């Protein structure tokens, strides 16, 4: 009992240490942080104005209907919105942002604990695994150097994906974690989802013989349907716009494999857990699990890997492949450009989202076999000390406000080309007395228009595909102006209402909501029957 208490105390100390930058005055910032801080402001406005589902920015000073949540997986911003709600809307945006980072790190800890408990069935080593994971270099780099909340949240569910897919193959407990975690990763971060699919493809191919079973195939099919239905609110509009091809990100964010290779890190930086200084990767970020995890992982490979079963060896093999692929020694230039999707990783080291939790889950086998309390204590203390390395700048270099930056990823291609001039254009349109906004309700915007003899009018809204426009309650076509705004020809005086196609947003949102609630009720009823 005394030992367990000490371990629980160390777990609490660990959580305090890794969220410490979120608890002190001021905040931390980065290029990615500006994007997520902008998303936070958007979700606050959307919640306060009851826009459901929360998709478009119609409320900020220079709004033009940009949508983050229709293209960037929304789970992390939902966490931010939930934080605002839990604190009864009393938090400043800065504190809301910091608490959201802390909450996601705590989710990382809990997820690894649950996953390690399922795999190793040992409370002590599940806690140790959670401590090592939450103090790992790449995780804390995502939290405090890059400050990529989407990838950080996706990484939180990676341990569940690894354990769940392993259980599906081996028949062990925990296979339900597979579809749940895959869905959560999809609505957290798309590059992490691509890394997850790549991992699952390799894992299932290596273990194909164990998957050729009626029950397993049936479960895989059910899992696919679970992922599709639970994430439909995000994937339906995303796929629609991908097919239309009118969004900048779909053209510009996929890099060539040759370019991907140039973002690989030095292998010495990965092994010794030092910040990147070479290649095209931003200087100062940490692409490594950290020196402590690396040492124990190497020990596991040398001492215990040969004792592992076939599934664990396949996880180890994929993990090593992903580690090498994250460095500049991997020949990405030899990969055919005809291979789709993987290029949307952009940076090869995003595979670390899978590598780091896989390393932690595997190295616990060695710690369990040694079962030394003093060694475990030494490892935990060392992990806590080294965790300050990726957190150092976020503690020392504080700022009072995260700057605003206008990100162009999810603009339409035409709007993006004219983005430098469009803000002035939009301001002029909004000050035009002949086109006045009379109402904004649940994402529908109503304009009172005095068109006089004008043959066309431009509205201050970016012309995404999927909008529906009515003029005095009658449907009217719209086109895209030369600068990417909604252009209406031959309007009549009166009311123009712009709303987004509910078949693409509200209905998929409702489908996902009903499906998730139904699954929850089903599981509650089923667990209740088992107790009886």
From TrEMBL:
Keywords: Membrane, Transmembrane, Transmembrane helix. It comes from the Bacteria. The chain crosses the membrane at residues 7-28, 71-92, 99-119, 125-145, 152-169, 181-207, 219-243, 284-302, 314-335, 347-367, 374-391, 507-525. This is Uncharacterized protein. It comes from Yersinia rochesterensis.
């Amino acid at each position: 009992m005394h030992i367990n208490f000490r371990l629980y105390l160390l777990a609490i100390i660990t959580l305090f240490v890794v969220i410490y930058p979120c608890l002190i005055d001021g905040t931390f910032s980065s290029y990615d942080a500006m994007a997520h801080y902008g998303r936070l402001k958007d979700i606050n406005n959307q919640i306060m104005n009851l826009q459901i589902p929360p998709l478009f920015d119609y409320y900020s000073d220079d709004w033009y209907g940009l949508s983050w949540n229709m293209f960037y997986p929304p789970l992390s911003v939902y966490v931010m919105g939930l934080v605002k709600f839990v604190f009864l809307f009393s938090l400043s945006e800065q504190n809301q942002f910091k608490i959201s980072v802390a909450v996601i790190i705590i989710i990382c800890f809990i997820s690894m604990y649950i996953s390690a408990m399922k795999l190793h069935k040992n409370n002590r080593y599940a806690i140790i695994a959670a401590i090592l994971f939450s103090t790992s270099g790449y995780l804390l780099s995502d939290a405090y150097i890059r400050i990529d909340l989407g990838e950080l949240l996706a990484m939180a569910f990676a341990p569940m994906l690894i354990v769940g897919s392993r259980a599906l193959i081996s028949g062990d407990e925990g296979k339900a974690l597979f579809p749940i975690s895959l869905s959560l990763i999809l609505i957290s971060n798309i590059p992490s989802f691509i890394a997850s699919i790549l991992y699952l493809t390799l894992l299932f191919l290596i273990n194909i013989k164990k998957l050729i079973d009626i029950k397993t195939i049936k479960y895989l099919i059910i899992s696919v349907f679970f992922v599709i239905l639970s994430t439909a609110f995000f994937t339906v509009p995303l796929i629609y716009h991908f097919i239309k091809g009118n969004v900048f990100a779909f053209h510009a964010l996929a890099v060539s494999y040759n370019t991907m290779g140039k973002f690989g890190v030095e292998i010495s930086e990965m092994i010794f857990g030092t910040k990147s200084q070479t290649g095209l990767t931003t200087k100062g970020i940490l692409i490594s699990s950290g020196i402590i995890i690396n040492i124990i992982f190497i020990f596991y490979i040398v001492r215990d890997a040969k004792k592992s079963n076939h599934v664990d060896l396949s996880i180890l093999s994929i993990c090593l492949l992903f580690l090498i692929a994250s460095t500049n020694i991997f020949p990405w230039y030899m990969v055919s450009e005809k291979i789709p999707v993987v290029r949307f990783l952009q940076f090869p080291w995003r595979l670390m989202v899978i590598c780091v939790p896989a390393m932690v889950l595997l190295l616990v086998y060695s710690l369990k076999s040694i079962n030394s309390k003093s060694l475990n204590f030494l490892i935990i203390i060392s992990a806590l000390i080294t965790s300050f390395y990726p957190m150092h700048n976020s503690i020392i270099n504080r700022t009072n406000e995260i700057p605003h930056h206008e990100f162009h990823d999810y603009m339409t291609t035409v709007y993006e080309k004219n983005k430098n001039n469009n803000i002035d254009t939009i301001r002029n349109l909004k000050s035009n007395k002949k086109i006045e906004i009379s109402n904004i309700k649940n994402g529908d915007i109503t304009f009172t228009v005095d068109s006089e003899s004008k043959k066309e009018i431009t509205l201050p809204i970016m012309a995404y595909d999927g909008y529906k426009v009515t003029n005095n309650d009658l449907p009217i076509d719209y086109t895209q102006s030369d600068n990417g705004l909604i252009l209406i020809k031959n309007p009549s005086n009166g009311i123009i209402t712009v709303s987004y196609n509910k078949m693409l947003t509200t209905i998929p949102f409702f489908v996902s909501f009903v499906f998730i609630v139904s699954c929850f009720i089903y599981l509650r009823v089923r667990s209740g029957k088992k107790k009886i």
